[in-house]
Amino acid sequence: MKASRKYGIIAAAICIVIQLVLAASCYGSSEPALKPLTDWRFTWEGVGTGSRSTDGIGPASGWEPYRMKQPLQLSTGEEKAGWFETKLPALIWNTPAILLKPVYGIKIDIYVGQEKRYEIDRDYRYDVHHILLPLSREDAGQTLLMKIQGGSGRIGMDGPVWAGDYQTLLTKLIKANLGDIVLGSSFIFIALIMLISAVLLNRSERNSWLSLTVVILSIGLMILTYSPFVYSLFRSYGEWFQVVFDLGLLSLLPAITYYFERTIGPGYMLIIRICRKFQTGYSLFCLGFMVINLLSGSRFSDIYYLFSVKVLGCIMIVLLMILAASAISYASKGNRDAAVFASGFALFAIPALGELVWFYVRQGDYVLFWWKWGVLGFVISLIMILGRKFAHNHRQIVVYSRELEMFNSELQRSEKMEIISELAASVAHEVRNPLQVTRGFLQLLQEKSRDREKEYLRLALEELDRASGIITDFLTFAKPEAEKVSLLNVGYEFRHIEGILIPLANLQGGRMTTDIPQDLYVYGNSSKFKQAFINMIKNSIEALREEGHIQIRAYREDGQVVIRVADNGEGMEPSEVARLGEPYYSNKSKGTGLGLMVTFRIIEVMQGKIEIESKKGAGTVMTVRFPAAASGEQGAE
Predict the structure, then answer these.
(1) Contacts by 543-548, CB closer than 8 A, 24 or more apart
(2) In this structure, are residues 300 and 288 in contact, taking their beta carbons and an 8 Å threshold?
(3) Residue 9: how many other CB atoms lie within 10 Å
(4) Coiled-coil ranges per the record (predicted)?
């Protein structure tokens, strides 16, 4: 139940995240008219010659038309700069502004006329900017110049530039980034809650729980720190956002492979375990390289970029394909968790692999977008798998608890029976001889006594015989092993039992019928076999009411001989059935409980099992199962 509640809470949290994201997508859907700035020109730094006659900013010649959504490519590490210009339109809004997103570059300076209005200079590789630049109405008709310096392989713009009201553009900017902020923050929050909850789990469940926590936390950190909005909002922390993103990426793959290994399996020829160890080692290598690069003032950033982006991306593609193939393999063998994993993984892998391939085809000139939505479905599938695992573990614990309770009960019964067996054997041997001597003297006295005294002596002898019968039962219980084991024909044995008990059933006002084939054989001692079933059937006869009926049927089933004794007598309550076979327990006024106790012991020694079903007022069914023996086998001494 605890696992189910945890699973429900987490699923509810994911649903809340989805609702928030959907709400964010609807927010600000109706907006006042915006005007796109599409007439741009471009030139490289140092290509144009001369100076401007009006403002003196930027080159005077060498300008060419610039098409939007086509960033210009640079060689890796090249710090070449380019100039972009356009004319500002009529600014008819009360608080005009322009929104540029995304803009690619490491260092950006924006001028309106001769006045610098915006400046940013990053010393790390993240080159995506969302810029909201406030203007005034007097800026209408002015030249807007933007100088962009590269360093990570591209400069330029990959979307339309909008002019409009400041608040409207701010809403547009927030709307474009709110999904990432809400989704990433929600994942982080859920991971922290899961981390706190981990202290309540036992060790067997904690490892899977923590690995899923790391997966969700890593994804949340990556989504949050991949958004350009946080870099624009917190400019001074951009380098640390890059570090956090890399930490999330380096911990994600080992956590996913470890989670897969724990919840589904190690894969064909332990390939998932091998991948997990390799990925862990490679992540530690990249982590060490990152620390060295930071301490050296980013002197090795190009080499670190090679290992942490290009090489790691290729490793990620291979690992995702291996995980997908392993999940499909397990699912084809009937593993439901693998089927859930494969379905959720498909939601993540299809857009992620497509975007990674497209990222390399474009030589890094692509902003990954769809992977974050695919990862939402993937995380939900991981939570479902863990929830199923916890529910299964809970069911197993319940089953094990019941089995342990039954084992303890059986152990206590065995110990009790062992003590009673030893006591019974000791008492029976010590008491039987004095009883026999006493009986002999009473018989001598009976011969020489008068009639009235003979009646008393007769009663005394009857009680001594009853005591002797009880002692015999004690000895049978204490040592039920048959002196001679032979091959018994069940039908033949029951013919003798019928001859003894049918008259007794008739006197009770009932009847007894049998249906026993002649080809059923078991191993045992004939007298003990008869004693056991006579005790059982006598109990059924004594429980009969008017028009009582006892039906005895035998048959072979799954290599066993099954003997079924059913009556329509008084029946018993479940509590009474549970106590049958206990020493000194009997639901008859003069019973000692030893009869059924001896019966159970005889059946146990013959390697049989007895099952009792009873309902008060409806009757009782006693089913005994013995290992079947072939008719041609010989008895064993």
Answers:
(1) 543/567, 543/569, 543/570, 543/571, 543/619, 543/620, 544/505, 544/508, 544/509, 544/510, 544/568, 544/569, 545/569, 545/570, 546/509, 547/509, 547/510, 548/505, 548/508, 548/509, 548/510, 548/511
(2) no
(3) 13
(4) none
- Give the helix ranges, DSSP H, for 27-104: none
Rounded percentage of the chain residues whose pLDDT exceeds 90? 12
Q: What is the DSSP letter of 634?
A: P
Residue entry with tokens 């394909």:
321
Q: For residues 162 and 168, give the distance between their C-alpha atoms in angstroms, rounded to a whole number.
A: 11
Give the Cβ contact number of residue 319 at 10 Å: 19
Q: For residue 140, what is the DSSP state?
A: T
Q: At residue 1, does pLDDT exceed 50?
A: no
Radius of gyration of the CA atoms of the chain, in A: 45
How far is Cα 602 from Cα 597, in angstroms, rounded to an integer?
9
Q: Are strands 486-489 and 143-149 parallel, antiparallel or unpaired?
A: unpaired
DSSP string of 238-294, one letter each residue: HHHHHHHHHHHHHHHHHHHHHHHHHHT---GGGHHHHHHHHHHHHHHHHHHHHHHHH
pLDDT tens, residue by residue, 527-537: 788 888 888 88
Nearest to 418 by CA among 577, 606, 601, 578: 601
Evaluate if residue 242 carries a pLDDT over 80: yes
Q: Which two tokens stand for residue 112?
A: 């309106």
What are the counts of helices (DSSP H) followed by strands (DSSP E) for the chain? 15, 19
| Residue 531 structure tokens | 């004693």
Average pLDDT over residues 593-616: 82
Q: How confident is the model at residue 416 (pLDDT cuts 50, 70, 90)?
A: low
Taking CA 261 as the corner, what is the angle to CA 344 and CA 336, rounded to the nearest 5 degrees?
45
> What is the chain's percent helix, strand, coil content, to nearest 5?
60, 20, 25
Distance CA 226, CA 578 (A): 67
Cα–Cα distance for residue pair 538/567, rounded to 1 Å: 11
Residue 608: CA atoms inside 13 Å, Cβ hemisphere, count?
25
pLDDT digits (tens, 9 = 90+) for 423-482: 666 666 567 667 776 777 677 777 777 766 777 777 777 777 777 766 666 666 555 554
- pTM reported for the whole predicted model: 0.56
Strand 548-557 to 510-515 pairing: parallel
> Which DSSP category does 311 fall into?
I
SS3 100: strand
